[in-house]
Amino acid sequence: MHEHHHENGHEHTHTHSHQETKNVLNRLSRAMGHLEAVRRMVEEGRDCAEVLVQLAAVKSALNNTGKVILKDHISHCIVEAVEKDDFQKLEELNHAIDSFIK
């Protein structure tokens, strides 16, 4: 269980049950390892083009991880929110999508 604090002062607590937690954690671990490899490339003075290609791969991995989280959230939390007429959850989803796609 955890709490959400919103800019409008609203806060609530709830428990998430996600199907993709292990998948997300694995993806994040791989992205972190890849980013660490990019850092080493920079330290070693590797070619800028190579570094940028690898950095783009890290960005793509993080974006894909975000998509997995978003799909899982829609499939579980949002379906449940709609069933319970919890419009706050839908507002939170809109805010999260806006933040993610910036």
From TrEMBL:
Entry superkingdom: Bacteria
Region Disordered, annotated ranges: 1-22
Biased amino acid composition, Basic and acidic residues: 1-21
Protein name from the UniProt record: Metal-sensing transcriptional repressor
Organism: Brotonthovivens ammoniilytica
